């Protein structure tokens, strides 16, 4: 499965938020939130500031129960990462980001982003962190500069590179399975050959 621009955006935005001081869980929430936002904007969606918190919230595809919903509403806020704005609620004292009425969680990030990397996400994450940390803080604090300077020039390069990273792992696994299969076949043939050699049993006719 290929790594696309959506996964690149989410990973780089998460690395950006983490580099700017957000906890890892919140950074992943922010990364996925921004990837969803930009994908929707590309389709013509324009965000409108809500006059009040959503009446209903969804977390990990399930409605938030009423007793928790009120707590989320109390913490609903406009969060600024530099000059970029996103809506958020607090969970265990950490910001988690919201689009529409859906809260983006680290579990959502793992399912929609990390799963595309077939176990190699840590390598891509390390590269993303090194990339964003190579830029001045002013670039990371600017929505426009981050998009134009960090993400846009590298989105296709990273999508291709990370897809090849995943494909390389799969080819390695397939090669390993093929070697094991050949080894098993060779062992079977050797055993069969061995069972047909040696002296004939006593009393047998030739």
How would you explain this protein's 3D organization?
The protein has 206 residues and is an alpha+beta fold. The protein has one domain (5-163). Helices cover 58% and strands 12% of the residues. The chain contains 8 helices and 6 strands, in the order H-H-E-E-H-E-E-E-E-H-H-H-H-H. It has helices at residues 5-19, 24-42, 66-75, 106-112, 121-133, 137-141, 143-151, 155-195; strands at residues 58-59, 62-63, 77-81, 84-91, 94-99, 102-103. Strands 2-1-6-5-4-3 form a 6-stranded mixed beta sheet.
Strands, helices and their partners?
Blueprint: H1 5-19, H2 24-42, E1 58-59, E2 62-63, H3 66-75, E3 77-81, E4 84-91, E5 94-99, E6 102-103, H4 106-112, H5 121-133, H6 137-141, H7 143-151, H8 155-195
Parallel strand pairs: 1-6
Antiparallel strand pairs: 1-2, 3-4, 4-5, 5-6
Helix pairs in contact: 1-2, 1-5, 1-8, 2-4
Estimate the global geometry from the Cα principal axes: globular
Structure annotation, total helices: 8
Number of strands: 6
Number of domains: 1
Tell me the helix content: 55-70%
**Sheet having the most strands:** 6 strands, mixed
Q: Strand order, biggest sheet?
A: 2-1-6-5-4-3
List the secondary-structure elements in sequence, H or E: HHEEHEEEEHHHHH
- Alpha-beta classification: alpha+beta
Distance between the termini: 61 Å
> Poorly predicted ranges (pLDDT <50, ≥5 residues)?
172-179, 197-206
Strand content: 5-15%
Q: Averaging pLDDT over every residue, what do you get? A: 84
User: What is Rg?
Assistant: 26 Å
Report a brief summary of the structure:
The chain is an alpha+beta fold. The protein is built from eight helices and six strands; from the N terminus they run H-H-E-E-H-E-E-E-E-H-H-H-H-H.
